[in-house]
Give the backbone structure.
Amino acid sequence: MELKVYSQKNCKYCENIKKVLDENKMVFKSIEIDDNRDEWNELTRIIGMGMTPTIKFGDEIWVPSRDFRGPEELISRIKYFEEYPPKPVKEEEKVEMLLHGMRNIAMSLNNLGQQISNIHQKVNELSPPPKPTPVKQEIKEETTSN
């Protein structure tokens, strides 16, 4: 499978990824995004984000932080998919994959909301209740005229 690394000038993380790929004797094509705007724009339209280095391995598209957290994890991922290449996705499977992805996102957001609620509850339990502030009462003297 063809391996492409989409990078940009002066990106230290991009350079580090390419260096580690070279050290691991991985053959890849380096794509400078400023010199290949049409290809980069099409790729970012598909994945919905523009982060470098973006890695395209066959039909798979991987971005940092979402799909790999560093060069070593990327190398492991590439080696895994070289040994166990994914089958091409059929058209009828794409909708099903999208539905599963949306369910996963909904579940993750629900879990996140529950965690935030639990944290909020614990913070409230740890915080002492606010001290009541004394209320000044004004006593009005009524004067009566005779």
Summary: The mean pLDDT is 88. The radius of gyration is 28 Å.
